[in-house]
Amino acid sequence: MITWLIGFGQVFAQTNFTYDAAGNRLTKAVIGQAAVASLSGSQTVSSGQPASLTIALTGVPPWSLTVVGSSPIVFSGIATSPFICTVTPASSTTYTLSSVQNSCGPGTLSGTAYVAVLIGNCTVMFTVKDGLWSDPTVWSCNRVPISTDPVTLNHAVTIPINYVGTAQRVLYSSGARLLYGLGSLLRIGF
């Protein structure tokens, strides 16, 4: 395989030798641009609801790619870009691309998409034990608070080092404490 670097992408020429009945060598060349895939689409969904991830593709179609979240999902024969991948994660999941290829071979990957899953219709969020703000088991809704959640602290809760916690508002019960790790922050009402 011969590779030329042209402009901002790579162009590949693949030469396969074949022979006719008389033994004469015939040359076939395939020229195209290598696949490039970029994943985006971070969002928040309710439990059981689908999320749409966007994958921008360049290079010569058709493309094949693998999206990885809790398990790999393989797609092939993709003819148009952008490609919309629908996922329904059971819990909050970060998605990445593990491979992309076209007729020129393996390509270049970039991007991630985080799908936050809101579990249940939790309208009252409070602490159920001492622990870290970032630990879902500390909270009555079994998830970390987001910016639209009013929360009540009933225990000692620590925001971990360099972590940014969020909540709509924070109420304190008697004896409750909020401790901050080095470089941590709590954003209220954002």
Could you explain the architecture of this structure?
With 190 residues, this protein is mainly beta. The chain has three domains: 2-32, no CATH class; 34-118, Immunoglobulins (Immunoglobulin-like), CATH 2.60.40.10; 125-188, no CATH class. The chain has no helices and 21 strands. The strands form six sheets. Strands 5, 7, 8, 10, 11 and 13 form a six-stranded mixed beta sheet that branches. Strands 9-6-4-12 form a four-stranded mixed beta sheet, with no helix packed on it. A three-stranded antiparallel beta sheet has the order 1-2-3, with no helix packed on it. It is elongated and about 95 Å long.
Question: What's the helix and strand layout?
Answer:
Blueprint: E1 2-6, E2 9-19, E3 25-33, E4 36-40, E5 43-46, E6 51-58, E7 63-68, E8 72-78, E9 83-87, E10 93-102, E11 105-106, E12 108-110, E13 112-118, E14 125-126, E15 131-132, E16 150-153, E17 156-159, E18 164-167, E19 169-172, E20 177-180, E21 185-188
Parallel strand pairs: 4-12, 5-13, 14-16, 15-17, 16-19, 17-20, 18-21
Antiparallel strand pairs: 1-2, 2-3, 4-6, 6-9, 7-8, 7-10, 10-11, 10-13
